[in-house]
Design a protein that fits this description.
Two copies of one chain form a homodimer.
Chain A: E1 2-8, H1 17-23, H2 25-32, E2 35-42, H3 48-53, E3 60-62, H4 66-69, E4 74-79, H5 87-96, E5 100-103, H6 106-123, E6 127-128, H7 139-145, E7 152-158, H8 161-172, H9 177-186, H10 195-198, H11 201-215, E8 225-226, H12 234-243, E9 245-256, E10 259-270, E11 282-289, E12 293-300, H13 304-324, E13 347-357, H14 362-372, E14 377-384, E15 389-396, E16 399-400, H15 401-413, E17 417-425
Parallel strand pairs in A: 1-2, 1-4, 2-3, 4-5, 5-6, 8-10, 10-17
Antiparallel strand pairs in A: 7-9, 7-11, 9-10, 11-12, 13-15, 13-16, 13-17, 14-15
C-alpha cells in the first residue's frame, strides 16, 4: 500500500519534492511506514516546460483542483502555490474533504491559520506547515516536540533571507541600502516590489507563527509591530560597528508579566551574539528559555531543496500518524489564552541618532529630555557632522515602549534636534 | 491519573527535574496528556543534605533500587547516575520489569546501547536518551523526526564543553593548554583526571550515538579515532589564525562511498564557518545534508537545567505515547547495515607543522616527500624558528587517510625533519 499525495502548484519548491522522494526513497519509506507517491499535480497550464521538469515521474498534471479534491485515493494535499487566494479556498476544500494538508504558505497561515487549524481539528485531519517558518530549519517541530519541557521567555530570529543578505552587504562591505537592494534583485533574492522582505512583513508573518509554537498564544498579524531596513544608513552601520554591534533585521517575540509582544525591527546585536554571525541568506532562530537557557537553530530560510525537505518531513509525519492511528493531532498542541503585553512591560535598550546644531547647551538639553523620562545612557558619542551640525549617538539603558513613545515625541518637539533613527539594541 | 517516575541518582541534573516539573507544570501536563510525578528517588545515603535539596517535594528517597523496580505504580525510570555500573544493571532490570527508561548516560549508551535498545524492543518499552548528546540541544530528536526526509552526508560537532572552553581560552587569549586546563579545573568544568574531556573520549561517545541517528549505522566506540587537544601549542594556534582558521576539538561522522567514518580531532575551521564562533562551554552540531544543505543546532552541552530539560522532554514523549498507545516505538528508527569506510575514501585537508634544519635543499626534500604521495599544497609558510631550525607549516589539498599514514611515516623516517603536529583542516 502507498499513500498518495496531491500537489497544488509546481513551482520551485514543489518541483524539488520528486527529487527528495526519489533520492531518499528507502529512508523516507521506512520512516513513513509506507510508500509515498505523488499522484496528481495541479498546474495552471499543462505545458511543455512542466512536462520536461516532471520527466521520469509517474504523476499526472491536472488543471482543475477538483480532480485532486474528489480523488478518494489522495490522502494528503500539499499546497505550495503561495499567496492567499486561491490557496485558502483550496486548502479549505481539501480539509473539508477529509484530506490532510501540508503547506509552506506563511502569509496564509499567519493571516488565516486560526480558522484553518480549527477546521482541521473539526474534521480530525492533520494540517502541518513546518516550512512556513525559516524554510529548512525544523524550528516549529523542535518547539512543539523538544521544548515542550521548557518555558520559552524570548525568541529572536533572523527570519528573512533577502533582508539578511542586504544587511550583510551593508554591514560587512559598507554598501548603501539602495546598492544592496539592487544586488538582491539581480540575484533573484528580492522581487521587483521588495516591500514584504525589506519592510519586515514577511518576518512578521513568521513571528505570528512562532508566537503560537513558542508561547501558545495566537497574536494577530496586525499586532506585530514591524519596521524595515530601508531607513538604515551607512552612518548607522558605522556607528554600530564602533560601539561593538552588528545591525540585523530581527523578529522577536517575548513574554512579559502582562502578556506577549512581537515585533520586527532593525536591531543592534552585540558582535559576540550567535545571531550576529548569521550572514547572507541564512536564517536562524535564537531561543531563550528557563531550562535550556540559550539555544539557536541555524539553516537556509528558503530555497527549493531546504523547503521541500521540511514539507516532506511533514508528509512523513502525517503518513506515520495515519499508520499509528493518531493522525488527528494538532501540529502545535501548546495553547494558552492570548494576552498582549502592556507597553510599560516591553523593555529594550535603544540606539538614538540625533543631529543637532553644534552649539553650547545642546547636550545638556538632550540629557534633560531623556532624564525627564527616566531614561539613562549606557554609551554616548558626539561627532562633528557636516557644517554647523553635530551628530549625537546614544545607547540607552532599558527603556519601555511607553517611555520610548514619550521621549520620541519630546525630541521631535524641539526644533533644534533632528531624530535621524531609533533602533532596538540587544543588551549583552 | 498521573504517571509516576522513579529517579536513579540525585546529583546535579536529577535535582533539576523537580524544578522544571514545578515551574512548567501546566505546559508539561498538557503535553504529556497526564500529570507527571516523581515518586521515588534512589540515593546511596538518605542524608540530611539531600533532604534539604528535596524540600517541598512529595517523593521518597530509597536506598535499594528494588524499591523502584518492584513498584508497579512506577512506569518510567530515569537513570542519571552516570558511569557504566551499576547504571547498566539497573537499566537492564528496569527494562526487564517492563518499565520505560530515560537516560543521559552517554558512556553507557555508546558502549552498551545496542543490547539495551534490543532489550527495550523485546519488552515493547521505550528507551530514550536525548540528553546523552550535547545536553540541552535537541539534536537526536531533530535527526530522528525532522531530518527523516533528508540524507545526511556529514555531521560536525563541538561536542565537549570542557575542551571547548579550553580551546576558546587558547585561541582568543593565547593561553597554553596547561593554563587553560588549570582554569577549567578551578571552575569545575574539568575533573582532576581530565582525560575523557581533553582526549576526545567524551566526544567520541557522542559521535557513536550521532552515527546511529544521522546515518542509521551503529559504529563501535573503538572504531572512532580520537585525538585530543593536549598536543596543541600556542604556535599552532597562532599559525591557524594567520592562515584564517580557528582550532577547535571537532567530532565528525561522514559517509563515504564505502561506509561511514567517525573521528574526534583538533580541526582547523575557517573563521567564517558557523562552528568557529561556538565558544566557551557551548556545544553545536553542524549537519550537512542533500536536502537542507547546512544547518546547525547550538546550545549548552551540559549543566543542570539544560540536561534536565532534555530528560523531561523524553519523559513527556513517553507519557504521551503511553496515552496514544504507541509507546514501543524506538527512539531512532533509522537503521541500515553498518559499513565502515575504507581509509582511501576518507579525505580531508591537513595542517602539518614541521621543524627542519635551516639548510639549503630542505624545502625541496619536503616537497618531494609530499609529491611522492601525490599530496599537493594549498598554503605553505616557512618561518625562522629558534637557532638553526626553521619551521615549515603546510596546509594540503585533499589527502586520504591512507596517504596521511604514508606521508607521516616518510616524514618521520627523515632525521632532518621533526613532525610537530598534524591536524585536520576543514575546506571552505
Amino acid at each position: 500500500m502507498s499513500i498518495k499525495i496531491g500537489l497544488l502548484g509546481f513551482g520551485t519548491v514543489a518541483s524539488g519534492m520528486p527529487f527528495l522522494l526519489k533520492e531518499n526513497k528507502d529512508k523516507i519509506t521506512a520512516a513513513s511506514g509506507t510508500k509515498l507517491e505523488i499522484a496528481k499535480v495541479l498546474v495552471k497550464d499543462d505545458d511543455e516546460k512542466k512536462r520536461l521538469l516532471a520527466a521520469g515521474n509517474d504523476f499526472n498534471f491536472v488543471t482543475n483542483v477538483d480532480d485532486i479534491l474528489s480523488d478518494d485515493n489522495i490522502a494528503i494535499v500539499v499546497e505550495l502555490m503561495g499567496r492567499i487566494e486561491p490557496a485558502k479556498t483550496f486548502i479549505t476544500k481539501a480539509l473539508e474533504a477529509g484530506k490532510h494538508v501540508v503547506s509552506a504558505n506563511k502569509d496564509l497561515i499567519a493571516m488565516h491559520g486560526k480558522e484553518l487549524i480549527r477546521l482541521a481539528q473539526d474534521k480530525g485531519v492533520a494540517f502541518y506547515y513546518e516550512a512556513a517558518v525559516a524554510g529548512g530549519i525544523p524550528i516549529l517541530r523542535t518547539l512543539a516536540n523538544s521544548l515542550t519541557s521548557d518555558k520559552v521567555t524570548r525568541i529572536l530570529g533572523v527570519l528573512n533571507g533577502t533582508s539578511n543578505f542586504m544587511m550583510t552587504k551593508m554591514v560587512d562591505e559598507g554598501w548603501t541600502y539602495e546598492a544592496a537592494l539592487k544586488k538582491a534583485q539581480e540575484l533573484g533574492y528580492a522581487e521587483s516590489d521588495p516591500t514584504n522582505d525589506v519592510e519586515g512583513i514577511d518576518a512578521a508573518y513568521k513571528a505570528v507563527i512562532l508566537s503560537q509554537f513558542g508561547f501558545g498564544m495566537t497574536i494577530d498579524f496586525d499586532q506585530v509591530v514591524h519596521q524595515g531596513i530601508s531607513s538604515i544608513t551607512p552612518d548607522d552601520v558605522a556607528m554600530a560597528q564602533q560601539l561593538g554591534y552588528v545591525i540585523k533585521l530581527v523578529g522577536s517575540v517575548e513574554e512579559t508579566p502582562s502578556g506577549i509582544f512581537a515585533e520586527v525591527s532593525p536591531t543592534f546585536l552585540p558582535k559576540s551574539h550567535p545571531l550576529a554571525s548569521v550572514n547572507d541568506v541564512m536564517n536562524a532562530v535564537f531561543v531563550e528559555s528557563i531550562g535550556i537557557g540559550e539555544s539557536m537553530y541555524y539553516g537556509p530560510g528558503a530555497g527549493q531543496k531546504p523547503t521541500a525537505t521540511s514539507v516532506v518531513a511533514d508528509v512523513i509525519r502525517i503518513a506515520r500518524r495515519i499508520k499509528d492511528g493518531n493522525v488527528g493531532k494538532r501540529f502545535n498542541e501548546f495553547i494558552r489564552e492570548t494576552k498582549i503585553a502592556h507597553p510599560d512591560d516591553v523593555k529594550s535598550h535603544y540606539y538614538f541618532a540625533i543631529n543637532t546644531a553644534d552649539e553650547k547647551g545642546k547636550m545638556l538639553c538632550l540629557a534633560e529630555i531623556f532624564n525627564s523620562e527616566d531614561i539613562s545612557f549606557e554609551q554616548v558619542l558626539q561627532q562633528k557632522a557636516n557644517g554647523e551640525q553635530a551628530r549625537v549617538v546614544i545607547i540607552t539603558h532599558s527603556v519601555s515602549k511607553s517611555q520610548l513613545v514619550n521621549v520620541t515625541e519630546k525630541l521631535q518637539a524641539v526644533a533644534d534636534f533632528k531624530l535621524l533613527n531609533t533602533f532596538k539594541v540587544l543588551g549583552e
